[in-house]
Amino acid sequence: MTWRAPEVERGGWIGELAVVPERAMLEGWLDWQRDTLLAKCAGLDGEQLARVVAEPSSLSLLGLVRHMAEVERAWFRRRVAGEDVGDVFEGDEGFAGVEAARAERDFGRYREEVAAARAAVAGRGLDETFAASSGKRLSVRWVYVHMIQEYARHNGHADLLRERTDGRAGT
User: Fold this and answer.
1) Is 166 helix (H, G, I), strand (E, B) or coil?
2) Residue 128: which region, alpha, beta or left (left: phi > 0; alpha: psi -120 to 50)?
3) Topology of the domain covering 21-166
4) Cα–Cα distance between 95 and 63 in angstroms, integer?
5) For a disulfide at 70, which of 17, 66, 94, 123, Cβ 3.0-4.6 Å?
6) Are 81 and 118 in contact (CB under 8 A)?
């Protein structure tokens, strides 16, 4: 049987985030964005996920999943937690080296990075700061907001890629 990206079950409605404490709101919106990326991929097989459908761009849905695994690791584990960890995937922030046959493995690695990112910020205050590579001080709050916008931007790409793959839009 051919592996397909699993369907995504969304937790409650995002409107519930309007009346929660700030940390829960940021985590909730970030989880919503994470789930949105996976929902854009749901039901597709490795070949469909790795397919480049909007030339001349080399973007693919699988490339976006791989890239976001790298971004999760870079911001939460390397920068906030100061972990000395290498790349999740070799090459160009996860965009290079996309292979249909490794889609299931790549999705697994993405999920592992999301779990590791959550662990890296557990117990850290939103006002806690760290030095960015530029030397500028950034807060954990800033990272949450940055990650929400990073996902939102790439989810727009994913929406277009999904529509070009099989005609499905929205989600």
Assistant:
1) helix
2) beta
3) Four Helix Bundle (Hemerythrin (Met), subunit A) (1.20.120)
4) 5
5) 94
6) no
Give the whole-angstrom CA distance, residue 58 versus residue 129. Answer: 36
Can you tell me which residue has the tokens 């949450």? 144
Across-strand partners of 68? none
Residue type, 95: F
Dihedral sign, CA of 90, 53, 155, 150? Answer: positive
From residue 125, give the alpha-carbon distance in Å to each of 6, 23, 100, 133, 158: 33, 9, 39, 21, 32
Mean pLDDT by 10 residues, the chain (171 residues): 91 78 94 96 97 93 97 96 93 86 97 98 96 93 98 97 90 64
CB burial readout 92-106, b (16+ within 10 A) else e = ebbbeebebebbbeb
Closest CA to 147 of 99, 91, 97, 80: 80
Q: How far apart are CA 92 and CA 108, in angstroms?
A: 19
Give me the residues paired with residue 148 across strands: none
